[in-house]
Amino acid sequence: MDIVLVAGLWLSGSVWDDVASALKALGHRPVPLTLPGQGDGSASATLDDQVAEVLAAVDSASERPMVVGHSAACTLAWLAADARPEQVAKVAMIGGFPSADGASYAGFFELKDGVMPFPGWSPFEGPDSADLDETARQRIEAAAIPVPEGVAKGVVRLADERRFDVPVVLVCPEFTPAQAREWIEAGEVPELAKAKHLDFVDIDSGHWPMVSKPIELARLLSAAAAA
Could you list the residue ranges forming a coiled coil in this record (predicted)? Predict the structure, then answer.
């Protein structure tokens, strides 16, 4: 299966290198994306530009792909399902949840000079980063690309309720499936509360399993694609 891989904030498509290699060995065609403004040198990129990049990958797939979103990019994967509900075979979300219509895409951290730089490790102490050694932390921080304001402050627009028919698998790294179910049932994730086909998969990692456990993550994604 074609598997479109969309990284979260600050990360280019290279963060998927180890996962992509493992997916190829498992018989899939991984398509890791470097999003506009997150590796292509465009500081003026917008959320619409990033959505267009994901949709271009969906449209060029040789078959109906699974779209994988990590962290904030879970919203990008969900926007792809909204725009192409008949073309997206499944959405996998890793360590994040889709924003609702009208919400800001990623207003999480302070903007400086028109971009949102990586804030350092302080906001991610605890379960998010407990599995990362110093080498892994340095690798992530060295590769981090400031996110353009037009992306971070972009407004999410969802329009087609057929997105709720697209199967979703939620990969739970720094939180458990039980916690995720609790948040969804409490109304904190309204988009997933309406999903008609939602599965939960646990992975014993922090927020960046593509760095700390790429082989295990690839196997989970392969199993999700085959399910």
Answer: none
Residue 145 identity: I
Taking CA 208 as the corner, what is the angle to CA 50 and CA 114, rounded to the nearest 5 degrees? 40
Name 92's bridge partners. 68, 169
221's tokens: 């994604």
Q: What is the reported pLDDT for 95?
A: 98
Neighbours of 40 (CB within 10 A): 15
CA distance 8 to 188: 20
What pairs with residue 148 in β-bridges? 115
pLDDT tens-place string over residues 133-146: 999 999 999 999 99
Question: What is the value of pTM for the model shown?
Answer: 0.96
What is the per-residue DSSP string for 145-157?
A: -PEEHHHHTPBP-
2-6 and 66-70: which strand pairing?
parallel
- Asked if 87 contacts 63 with a C-beta cutoff of 8 angstroms, the reply is no
Domains and CATH numbers, the chain: 2-226 (3.40.50.1820)
**Contacts for 15-20: CB closer than 8 Å, 24+ residues apart:** 15/140, 15/143, 15/208, 15/210, 15/211, 16/210, 18/210, 18/214, 18/215, 18/218, 19/210, 19/214, 19/217, 19/218, 19/221
Burial zone of 180 (CB within 10 Å; 0-12 exposed, 13-18 middle, 19+ buried)? buried
